[in-house]
Design brief:
The model is unreliable at 1-15 (pLDDT under 50). Helix 6 (107-120) runs parallel beside helix 8 (176-190), helix 8 (176-190) crosses helix 14 and helix 12 packs across helix 14 (368-387). It contains 15 helices and 36 strands. The longest helix has 20 residues, at 368-387. With 601 residues, it is α+β, with helices and mostly antiparallel strands. The protein has 4 domains: 4-85; 117-387, Aminopeptidase, CATH 3.40.630.10; 392-471, Immunoglobulin-like, CATH 2.60.40; 479-600, Sandwich (Immunoglobulin-like). The strands form 9 sheets. The chain has an 8-stranded mixed beta sheet, sandwiched between helices.
Length: 601
């Protein structure tokens, strides 16, 4: 039964309802199934511990949105209203000794700080409007999203690995952007004196997005310090989507809600929100090698995969190895995430980015001095993370003109079964692969090209090897037909078909086809022996028509007439047809199967 105090206090608040979140203390002894009943609520501490930490506890605290109040009351749990969401700006200005100071960042202050860093370090830092860069929509309240980019040659976008650091998917977590901004400050201030920092900046391009949810953060400062979501208008006076439940990979499988008023509402569709779309577009443009996402609270580093998703054994080994190192550097615990549809899971799925969510501190808005101390604890891990390298780095290029390719790479040793892949960026074809040590098949695919599979051997964790892949463009079917036997002194016609009209062609002949002529990544099925080189020119009347230009159908024919001499009986000659075009290795575009003709009496 609810207490009289609860009823009277709730009635009083509703009568003067400011439309903000409620904070209740729940007596877990008031119902035998209390934990099950609150499982889908916004339970403070649940993000960092699930509900396991509440077993045996007498009370817990929950945040209840106004639209969920009636449903919460129907649970019939004994509860006390502790607080009501208020403008954080007003809280910070209050005279209470417990009032937090105003050092936390508003959205304009974040944007101004990024501009200040650019001004202070013009050779190393650049503020970027990533909404404009990715040509995506502004937020529901018309905000753009901003990043600070750090590199040693900031005026140019160089061919180097990219890392993304983000924070404040959830608006009320005011301590999280301080972690991201401090990373930027420390990197830039330390470049001239710290060798490790200089190496990171010289060899990488680091993107830092301190505020993923500008609409929600603005609302925290102006209306409700417990506000979590963005500010999508869901209709009926209900607002907001939980941005860290909105990512497409495993969207809606567990830990989120379809209820529009829930603080865990996952949105009307996967990737529906402008904030999500913008960061995903940036990730698809830059193909980040690593991703670090700051939240609060819990002092924990989360597993990349949700509790309802089972990664492959190799993937799990990679994620847990690096997560353990990161947590140890921060002196943090480790745990599983609360839900699917979260950012790190998507970044690994989409780009093979080594991705972690870090829950900092023990509350959303502690005294700023507490956050400053917490950042000092977090920084060693962040610095080490920025210096890590994958098992492989390199490029995927087309055989034609060495054009960079946006390719998909699938390492069998990762055991991926849900479409998780690493991807190279379109601008430079830069690839990265995080793999467990050992030998694995690797398949590389790109649009308009033949896929290629081969073995690679990943080194020990912490060692990076160079790996380049060249893919052959899809080519028209190319064939060479001729008789397999031929009487001495009799002519044979070799017909070469490519479906590629007006190309220069050559049909060389040789005494063998193996091991062939290696022109990586291809091997011509004919040996470069003396006869091969002789057939570069005229061999009439024995061999003619083997050099020229394909007709309008992409066809040509050659005539082979061996000498009428018994000495040639049993000889076997090999032929292959090839076409030529500028931009291909040795100019050879396509080639046919090898075909042999054996001479008989």
């Amino acid at each position: 039964m609810r207490s009289l105090a609860f009823v009277l206090l709730t009635a009083s608040v509703v009568a003067q309802d400011p439309g903000t979140n409620y904070r209740f203390r729940v007596d877990l002894r008031s119902h035998p199934r209390a934990l099950a009943l609150i499982a889908n609520l916004d339970v403070l501490g649940a993000c960092s511990h699930g509900l396991e930490h509440l077993r045996g506890a007498n009370t817990c605290e929950v945040i209840v949105p106004p639209g969920e109040l009636a449903a919460f009351r129907r649970l019939a749990l004994r509860s006390t209203l502790v607080d009501r969401g208020r403008p954080y700006a007003a809280i910070a200005r209050s005279n209470s000794p417990q009032a937090p100071d105003t050092n936390y960042f508003t959205v304009p202050e974040i944007e101004a700080e990024l501009l200040k860093l650019q001004t202070t370090y013009p050779l190393l830092a650049r503020r970027v409007d990533i909404t404009a860069l990715t040509n995506t929509s502004k937020t529901h309240r018309g905000h753009s999203m901003f990043a600070i980019v750090i590199s040693d040659n900031i005026a140019k976008s160089e061919d180097e690995p990219c890392t993304l650091v983000a924070s404040q998917h959830h608006a009320r977590e005011l301590n999280s952007p301080y972690m991201s901004i401090q990373i930027a400050r420390r990197l830039l201030a330390g470049y001239a004196t710290n060798a490790a920092i200089k190496k990171i900046i010289d060899e990488n391009e680091i993107w830092i997005v301190p505020c993923m949810n500008p609409d929600g953060v603005s609302y925290v400062w102006s209306n409700d310090n417990y506000w979590r979501k963005n500010r999508r208008d869901n209709g009926g006076g209900i607002f907001g989507v939980d941005l860290n439940r909105n990512y497409p990979f495993r969207w809606g499988v567990c830990g989120s809600s379809t209820n529009r008023s829930s603080n865990n509402y996952r949105g009307p569709s996967a990737g529906s929100e402008p904030e999500t779309k913008t960061i995903m577009a940036l990730a698809q443009l830059k193909r980040f090698e690593k991703y670090l996402d700051f939240h609060s609270s819990g002092q924990e580093v989360l597993h990349t995969y949700s509790p309802c998703t089972t990664p492959g054994a190799g993937t799990k080994a990679v994620i847990e190895y690096w997560r353990g190192k990161l947590a140890a550097k921060m002196s943090y615990r480790v745990r599983n995430p609360s839900a699917s549809g979260e950012a790190p899971e998507w970044h690994w799925y989409e780009n093979g980015s080594l991705s972690y969510l870090v829950e900092v501190g023990t509350s959303f808005q502690p005294s700023f001095s507490v956050t400053v101390a917490e950042e000092k604890r977090v920084w060693p891990g962040a610095l080490e993370f920025l210096g890590w390298g994958p098992s492989f780095r390199g490029h995927v290029r087309s055989l034609k003109d060495s054009t960079p390719l946006s390719a998909v790479l699938d390492a069998a040793s990762l055991g991926s079964s849900l479409g998780e892949r690493s991807r190279s960026d379109a601008a430079r074809g830069r690839l990265h692969l995080w793999m467990p040590p050992g030998t694995s098949a690797l398949t590389t695919k790109a649009t308009g090209h033949d896929s290629a599979t081969g073995n690679v051997t990943a080194p020990a964790y912490g060692t990076t090897r160079q790996l380049d892949r060249t893919l052959v463009p899809n080519l028209p079917a190319t064939t060479l037909t001729a008789p397999s036997t031929l009487k001495i002194g009799k002519p044979a016609t070799l017909v070469f078909r490519t479906g590629d009209p007006a190309k220069a062609y050559w049909i060389p002949m040789a005494f063998g086809s193996s091991p062939g002529l290696s022109i990586p990544p291809r091997t011509l099925p004919i040996n470069p022996d003396p006869l091969f080189f002789l057939s570069m020119g005229s061999l009439a009347p024995i061999y003619s028509g083997h050099i020229g230009t394909l007709d309008t159908r992409g066809e040509a024919s050659a005539r082979f007439t061996p000498p009428n001499s018994a000495a040639f009986i049993g000889f076997r000659f090999w032929f292959t047809g090839m076409t030529f075009e500028t931009g291909w290795p040795l100019g050879i575009k396509a080639f046919s199967n090898a075909h042999s003709i054996t001479l008989t009496r």
